[in-house]
Structure formats: structure tokens, C-alpha cells
């Protein structure tokens, strides 16, 4: 009916009431273009990974096999634009559109390619909450509506800044939701590793048990 509240979830942790607030990303975060020149630095035999959105999984682990290696000085140049000691999220703007990853500061030096934007939320926002919201279909649909370009799909950084995020009024509600989904992600990553391991094992046994 008329009194139906729009900004409340169907499922809620006990003890929380009241409507959530809707904000634009630019109101609650800083959105950074990591590599404004958009030309990938040349490959080096030994160097640091220049990661694209496809080189990182949901818990922020880098695939060192797929990432391009570049000169270490690229890190220093990037470090002037963004600091990964500030908890950050990456979102795919080119190719893997809307893919959301956690960017980590505990796995050595790396630099970030222009296939993603870096989002650094204000300190009153809980990062795990923001991460899970951005992976939700409600946010992803909004994001997909912005994509343009027939051959190479991409979403402009200005469009990204205008996207909306719904936020629980109480920080504790953000916190609880964030932890809940973070635990899920860890469980999924763990099982993914188990699955990969089993698949490798099966491959090996297939090779050994059937003559070449």
C-alpha cells in the first residue's frame, strides 16, 4: 500500500529497524582511475604484476601466471595516485564489467591496470558491507545499464560516480551484514581451492591410468 517502506530489506538481523539511506557512490567514496594514460607499460622478465580485473579472485589473490609483469618503478608512480593501505575495492569497467574484487595490501607490490577503477570508501562505511552490496543484483543491474560501446563494453568513471548504494542507518547493521557475507566468500574460496586440487588430481590420474 501507500505506507510501504521502500528502503528496507526483506531479511534483517534482529534488533534493527528504520529505513536505509540511498547515496551516490561519489558521496561516500573516492573513485580513482589507477592508470590514466591507459597504455599498458611494457612487459618485463622480472617485475611486479600489473593486474587487470581478470587476474584477481574475489578474496584478492593474484594469478601470477596471467598478470603482465612490469618495471617496479610503475608501482612508485601509481603509489602517488592511490594508497592500497587504505582498504580498497576494484570494479571492472572494461571487459569483466561489474566484477568486484577486494584489493589487498599484504601481498607485496603490484600496480593496477585501467580495466578497473579503485573505490575507497569513507571511514564511516564498512568495506565488507560495500563489497557485498556491489556484488548484489540490485547494484549490478544498475551498473549494467550504464555500459556502452558495441565492440568493447565499458563503463565511464563519471557514470560510476553516479551509481547509487543503499546504506543501513546503523553502522552495526552494515558490520553484521558485511561479516556475514565475508564469511561466505572465504568458504567459497576455500572450497574452490579444494575443487581445483581435486580436478588436478583427477587429471594426473587419468594420465597415469591410461597408456599414452
Helices, by number, come to 6
- Please report the distance between the alpha carbons of the first and last residues: 70 Å
Instruction: Strand order, main sheet: write it out.
Output: 2-8-5-6
Q: Helix amount, in percent?
A: 25-40%
Strand content: 15-25%
The total strand number stands at: 9
Structural class assignment: alpha+beta
Radius of gyration: 20 Å
Q: Give the topology string: H per helix, E per strand.
A: EHEEEHEEEEHHHEH
Question: Please, what is the average pLDDT?
Answer: 91
In one word, what is the shape?
Answer: globular
Largest sheet: 4 strands, antiparallel
Low-confidence stretches: none
In brief:
The chain has helices at 25-28, 73-79, 127-135, 137-144, 157-162, 171-209; strands at 21-24, 29-32, 48-51, 68-70, 88-92, 100-103, 111-112, 116-121, 164-167.
Structure description:
With 212 residues, the protein is of the alpha+beta class. 34% of the residues lie in helices and 17% in strands. It is built from 6 helices and 9 strands. Strands 2-8-5-6 form a 4-stranded antiparallel β-sheet. The protein has a 3-stranded mixed β-sheet with strand order 4-3-7. A two-stranded antiparallel sheet has the order 1-9. The longest helix is centred in the last third of the chain and has 39 residues. The chain is globular, with a radius of gyration of 20 Å. The model has no long low-confidence stretch (mean pLDDT 91).
Amino acid at each position: 500500500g501507500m505506507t510501504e517502506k521502500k528502503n528496507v530489506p526483506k531479511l534483517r538481523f534482529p534488533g534493527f529497524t528504520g529505513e536505509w539511506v540511498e547515496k551516490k557512490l561519489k558521496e561516500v567514496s573516492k573513485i580513482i582511475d589507477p592508470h590514466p594514460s591507459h597504455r599498458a607499460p611494457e612487459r618485463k622478465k622480472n617485475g611486479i604484476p600489473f593486474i587487470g580485473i581478470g587476474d584477481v579472485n574475489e578474496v584478492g589473490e593474484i594469478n601470477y601466471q596471467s598478470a603482465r609483469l612490469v618495471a617496479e618503478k610503475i608501482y612508485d608512480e601509481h603509489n602517488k595516485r592511490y594508497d592500497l593501505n587504505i582498504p580498497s575495492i576494484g570494479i571492472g569497467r572494461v571487459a569483466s564489467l561489474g566484477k568486484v574484487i577486494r584489493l589487498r595490501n599484504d601481498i607485496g607490490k603490484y600496480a593496477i591496470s585501467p580495466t578497473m577503477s579503485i573505490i575507497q570508501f569513507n571511514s564511516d562505511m564498512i568495506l565488507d558491507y560495500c563489497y557485498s552490496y556491489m556484488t548484489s543484483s540490485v547494484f549490478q543491474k544498475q551498473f549494467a545499464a550504464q555500459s556502452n560501446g558495441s565492440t568493447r563494453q565499458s563503463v565511464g568513471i563519471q557514470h560510476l560516480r553516479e551509481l547509487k548504494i543503499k546504506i543501513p542507518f546503523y553502522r552495526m547493521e552494515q558490520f553484521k551484514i558485511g561479516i556475514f557475507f565475508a564469511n561466505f566468500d572465504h568458504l567459497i574460496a576455500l572450497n574452490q581451492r579444494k575443487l581445483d586440487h581435486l580436478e588436478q588430481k583427477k587429471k594426473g590420474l587419468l594420465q597415469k591410468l591410461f597408456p599414452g
